[in-house]
């Protein structure tokens, strides 16, 4: 069976109030990485000022107290990706832009490739919308 070095990747924009996410947001990300569900390839914080100006902070560009990079990430989110993903955030709010490798899907991608196929389209639906719809139509 084909074994890819990387599984499929996805980009997420996680919106929150203020300039920095709360510890719960960071813990949720860390839990996914620690459990082996995803591999974090890039993490960027973007803040939109009240006048609509976007400020971007790449975590791989920050240093800890010892002068060591805070995170050694691949930096896959381009300026265009960040602009597209933050287009919908309101002035005075922020977003964490995550690029994650879906580790659970790596073997699936290899099996599809060996069978002559690959995923050619994917559409995600946020969990709150799924739950609202199903509770209305199934319950």
UniProtKB/TrEMBL annotation:
InterPro entries assigned: DUF6325
Pfam families in the cross-refs:
DUF6325 (PF19850)
Kindly provide the name given to this protein in its UniProt entry.
DUF1269 domain-containing family protein
């Amino acid at each position: 069976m084909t074994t890819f070095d990387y599984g499929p990747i996805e980009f997420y924009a996680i919106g929150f109030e203020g300039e920095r996410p709360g510890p719960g947001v960071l813990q949720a990300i860390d839990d996914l990485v620690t459990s082996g569900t995803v591999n974090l390839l890039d993490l960027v914080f973007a803040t939109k000022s009240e006048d609509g100006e976007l400020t971007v902070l790449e975590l791989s560009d920050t240093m800890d107290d010892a002068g060591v990079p805070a995170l050694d990430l691949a930096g896959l989110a381009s300026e265009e990706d960040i602009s597209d993903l933050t287009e919908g955030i309101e002035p005075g709010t922020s977003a964490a832009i995550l690029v994650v490798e879906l580790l659970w899907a790596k073997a699936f991608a290899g099996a599809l490739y060996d069978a002559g196929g690959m995923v050619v389209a994917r559409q995600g639906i946020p969990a709150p919308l799924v739950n609202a719809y199903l509770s209305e139509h199934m319950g």
